[in-house]
Each structure stands twice: as structure tokens, then as C-alpha cells.
Design a protein that fits this description.
Its cofactor is Mg(2+). By secondary structure, the chain is α/β, with parallel strands linked by helices. It has 8 helices and 5 strands.
Amino acid sequence: MQDLPNLILIGPMGAGKSTIGRLLAAELSRQFLDSDHEIQARCGADIPWIFDVEGEAGFRQREVQMIEELTELEGVVIATGGGAVLREENRRRLRERGSVIYLFTTVEQQLKRVAKDRNRPLLQRPDREQVLREMFDLRDPLYRATADIVVRTDRRSPRAVVNEIVRRVQRLVDPLQAKA
């Protein structure tokens, strides 16, 4: 399946982009890159620190540069941060340089998955559910407009999600083979 384009995972925090991305890359014998981890490695600082020092705007500018770099690579699986779709230039780059998969999950599932996570600057407030709902309302239409495929991750094993992604991306690349 080396003829597949870059596979780019988008979706909210807690959707499973990193976990599923690693499994997907292993399944396809590809390199996996996580834009948030790459930003941290490049800066030598974690994302909460970047938010504290540079604010969200500073972080988003770093994210634009990282997505530009990562999407220039070929034959990779990329997981983006949940807010990457907020910038039109990111959405355009993602659509142009790979097959984009929106990992959809509900706010309820997000709350369960990020309950103890202190590494998410936008959730360091007492009203986490309201914050997640507001982000969902703003971002879901952007995820859908950017994605080639939407895959639900709620109450599904990461392996089942990976299998669905592989099947559906193969259909995008070669629709005739999918009918065989």
C-alpha cells in the first residue's frame, strides 16, 4: 500500500489521533509524526509552557510552520493538534498534501479520555465540558470541510478504527479495487 498518499489525522483532543496514528503507521510500514510532539521537540518545551510564554497565537504560528514541513514529506502518517484546522492555510495544506481523516468523537467521550490530562492548556479550567462543547461547535464543521473521510472512534478499539481507515482510504485511491 505504498501507493497511498500521506494520511493525515485530524479531530478533537481525545479522539485518539496519536494512538491510532502510531498503529496506522505500523500497519502500513510508514513513519508516524505527531505535529504537537514535533513542535515540543523543536522548541525543547512542552505545549503548556509555549501557551504560557507565547499565548495561543504564538503556538498556532508554530503549528502552521510545522504542518508546512510535515506535509512536504511523502508516505507518512501525520497526527495534527486539535486546533490545527482553525487556520485556513493549514486546512488548505492538509487537503492538498494527503488524504485527511477526521477522527470523530463525542464530547462525552472526550471528557472521559482527557479527565486526568493536565497537558492541555485550553482545558485548564473548571468548566471543561463547556469548553469542549464550544470547541466542538466551532471546529466540527472545519474538520468535516477538511476531511476526505470521517471515522467514528467512540466505543471502538484503536485496531478496529485503523482497519476501517485502511479500507476506506484504499477505496479513495482505487475505487475499482474496492468493488472486487
